[in-house]
Amino acid sequence: MTTIDTLPPLRDVINTHDLKARKSLGQNFLLDLNLTAKIARQAGDMSGCDVLEIGPGPGGLTRGLLAEGARRVLAIEKDKRCLPALNEIAEAYPGRLTVIEGDALEIDPLAYLTPPIRIAANLPYNVGTELLVRWLTPAEWPPFWDSLTLMFQREVAERIVAKPGSKAYGRLALLAQWRADARIVMNLPPEAFTPPPKVSSAVVHLTALPEPRFPADPAVLNRVVAMAFNQRRKMLRSALKAAAPDIEDRLISAGIKPTERAEQLSLEAFCALAREIAKP
Q1: 139: confidence class by pLDDT, cuts 50, 70, 90
Q2: Has residue 127 been placed in a domain?
Q3: Could you tell me if residue 5 is inside a domain?
Q4: What is the pTM for the complete model shown?
Q5: Could you tell me if 30 and 37 are in contact, meaning their C-beta atoms sit under 8 angstroms apart?
Q6: What angle do CA 66, 70, 76 make, to 5 degrees?
Q7: Surface-to-core class of residue 279, CB atoms within 10 Å of its CB (0-12 exposed, 13-18 middle, 19+ buried)
Q8: pLDDT by residue (tens digit) across 27-64?
Q9: Do 204 and 240 lie in a common domain?
């Protein structure tokens, strides 16, 4: 099977609309529609869901999401050159695709979406991490989304699912795993893209938990984690001395050795420490 719908192959779409990927926009296009449909399937049954897609480009994943049964897709695209191609997809799937031109960092998508909501995207490399952090740190939890199915550089994907003791373990792992189940569901080589990036990519699927895995004040936890990993080679009693004047006592109260380093601490330990630091 070389196509998933009645629309032209993506290579033809790109040639017709002269859509050469732009490095300044972090663009790398997936042209294999079988592959984009496979990525879409990682988001699960979408028949009763609205799906938010960021950076659809010529619409490969968009077509995959619609072909796999998404109730409705909201696609936010910054590159106006891609709009004619996306409008052709909207015509082929009447009433199921809404396209907004603009910057995903500046647009509130909730005005256009009806719960339940899932997010699925081949995120532009230059904004991917920032968007993920925003989705993981809303003012209220649970968030507006049920799940995230996102493509990142392989290195970023490994940071999201990393465990204590590994070099990849850090703030991103703790943010993701505190409030969601996160796993890598697909790996993609550079040659899957046009133009091929210099690194491999991976798709991460995150499912929102109804409440955080362990109790902690989000602001305090975020501050403690950031301080600890900003000086990850230092012992915690040194790295966190600005967090509290009696930090050594608070570490001990949380069951943590003051001589340990950030990368040795589990999520549960960081949450225990955040609760200790939040005490008067």
Answers
A1: very high
A2: yes
A3: no
A4: 0.94
A5: no
A6: 70
A7: exposed
A8: 788 889 999 999 999 999 999 999 999 999 999 999 99
A9: no
